User: Which sequence fits this backbone?
């Protein structure tokens, strides 16, 4: 795409912003509801297109479509409710010395957002997915950079969004779709002066490239990149002794779900050397024998999986425990083991391999386990398989998990991210570029807003959320009291 075309797109987004941000929350909510209804009406047509492009099975995609519609409606409900603006009012204190002015603050939309669709979620984290739904809810027009691995799906979803915009009387170009592929187009979109923020889910290299483009701008902008994770799992001795077979069964399912193509896939499993750990590894290998592999999302991901597993298996101390790869054209699940000393000495085996891969790291004791956990830095999740006694015996492992993760899972699997108010799907770098926010759940809206404060503003200037009579009827913190 030429710079002239990018200019046209971003200038149109800028004009749309001036109108869109002034609409009532109810109107924006109606738009989100109409997109959800349009997607539902399209039914299996969309799901079939997505399946043919991504190799993901129909039931998985139907579930993802339901989640996408749920997210759109959740954000519609959130903005109709109105509390998300986080209104705070501190009345003037004329008797204070010196007198304090009247100060009122709330969140406002940041401006046009560029969303890069994710290859592994063609609906829920692409065109009309969580980033787009939360940005539109906040009052930001969205320019969608289509993911080339599901171009037809993206276009079909976008047409439904355009239709919903017309039906509900949205400003022209409130959503736009950029169909070109190539990094130069992405770079021009991020660096355009009218772009106010960026949403991205994908590779570490991709996310960091977008962040670097932003830093080269005259005025850098926030880039919310969710770049994946190895999602360490800490197997503690009491839990392993109690049920190594049950744990192996759970993790066999989690590692292979959707060919392991989830950013929450458990890629590293840590245990303390013992016969129970050996039984667990053996049992995991047996469970995986019944796994039927399928083609991956796109050839680039498949090639990267073959190359990265081959490289990992060549590293010092890495021993294969199960690999269905021999003579197969389709990538298969692969489980290997390594001792903690070799793991700590080699950053290469600490990296994410996107696909059905997991490396079991055998530690001498819990101190070595915490060293391994700390070596990994920021992660979307850390999982502890632990009894109550384990948690009392090794509290420092819980501290390490909390220090470096967006979500700490107890006695479960990290795959499966619930869409709800308390969810955090994010985490310290390198999992994400900004650990203060979540990409999933209603709080995801905060990414596309900034707080503004009105000092001594006349009533007619104030937005309804901050007017004295509270015409919006929202919960507010007034002089330190919730009202
Ligand atoms: P990707 O390579 O990160 O690409 C995602 C999007 O970002 C694409 O639209 C791509 O542009 C754009 N992009 C990437 N690098 C860019 C750059 N330097 N400049 C401008 N735009 C750039 O992700 P992918 O193709 O989906 O998969 C590749 C790898 O990403 C996987 O093997 C996996 O490791 C990881 N991944 C992680 C997650 C996660 O949940 N964190 C999800 C999916 C994939 P084009 O359209 O021009 O290609």
Assistant:
């Amino acid at each position: 795409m030429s710079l002239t075309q990018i200019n046209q797109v971003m200038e149109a987004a800028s004009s749309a912003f001036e109108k869109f941000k002034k609409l009532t929350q109810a109107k924006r909510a109606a738009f989100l509801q109409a997109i959800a209804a349009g997607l539902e009406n399209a039914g299996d047509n969309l799901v079939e297109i997505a399946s043919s492009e991504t190799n993901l099975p129909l039931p998985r995609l139907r579930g993802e479509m339901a989640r996408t519609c749920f997210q759109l409606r959740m954000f519609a409900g959130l903005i109709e409710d109105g509390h998300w603006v986080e209104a705070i009012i501190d009345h003037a204190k004329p008797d204070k010395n010196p007198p304090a002015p009247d100060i009122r603050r709330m969140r406002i939309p940041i401006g046009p957002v560029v969303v890069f669709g994710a290859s592994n979620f063609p609906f829920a984290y692409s065109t009309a997915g969580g980033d787009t739904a939360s940005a539109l809810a906040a009052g930001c027009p969205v320019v969608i950079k289509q993911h080339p691995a599901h171009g037809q799906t993206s276009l079909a979803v976008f047409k439904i969004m355009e239709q919903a915009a017309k039906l509900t009387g949205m400003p022209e170009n409130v959503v736009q779709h950029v169909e070109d592929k190539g990094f130069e187009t992405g770079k021009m979109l991020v660096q355009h002066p009218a772009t106010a923020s960026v949403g991205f889910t994908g590779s570490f290299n991709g996310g960091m490239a977008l962040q670097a483009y932003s830093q080269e701008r005259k005025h850098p902008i926030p880039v919310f990149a969710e770049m994946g994770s190895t999602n360490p799992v800490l197997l503690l001795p009491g839990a392993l002794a109690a049920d190594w077979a049950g744990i192996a069964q759970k993790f066999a399912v989690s590692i292979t779900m959707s060919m392991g193509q989830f950013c929450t896939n458990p890629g590293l499993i840590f245990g303390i050397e013992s016969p129970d750990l050996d039984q667990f590894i053996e049992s995991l290998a047996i469970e995986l024998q019944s796994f039927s592999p399928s083609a991956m999302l796109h050839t680039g991901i498949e090639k990267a999986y073959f190359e990265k597993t081959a490289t990992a298996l060549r590293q010092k101390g890495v021993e294969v425990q199960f690999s269905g790869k021999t003579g197969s054209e389709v990538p298969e699940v692969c489980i290997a083991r390594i001792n903690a000393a070799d793991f700590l000495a080699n950053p290469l085996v600490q990296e994410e391999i996107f696909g059905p891969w997991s490396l079991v790291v055998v530690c001498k004791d819990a101190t070595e386990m915490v060293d391994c956990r700390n070596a990994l830095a920021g992660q979307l999740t850390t999982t502890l398989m632990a009894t109550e006694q384990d948690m009392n015996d090794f509290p420092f492992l819980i501290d390490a998990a909390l220090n470096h993760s967006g979500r700490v899972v107890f006695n479960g699997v990290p795959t499966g991210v619930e869409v709800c108010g308390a969810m955090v799907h994010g985490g310290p770098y390198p999992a994400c570029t900004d650990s203060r926010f979540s990409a999933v759940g209603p709080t995801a809206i905060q990414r596309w807003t900034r707080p503004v404060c009105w000092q001594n503003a006349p009533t007619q200037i104030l937005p309804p959320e901050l007017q004295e009579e509270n015409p919006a009827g929202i919960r507010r913190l007034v002089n330190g009291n919730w009202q």
Notes: The pocket of NAP is lined by residues 116, 118-120, 145, 147-148, 181-183, 186-187, 201-203, 206, 209, 226-228, 263, 300-301, 304, 354 (CB under 6 Å).
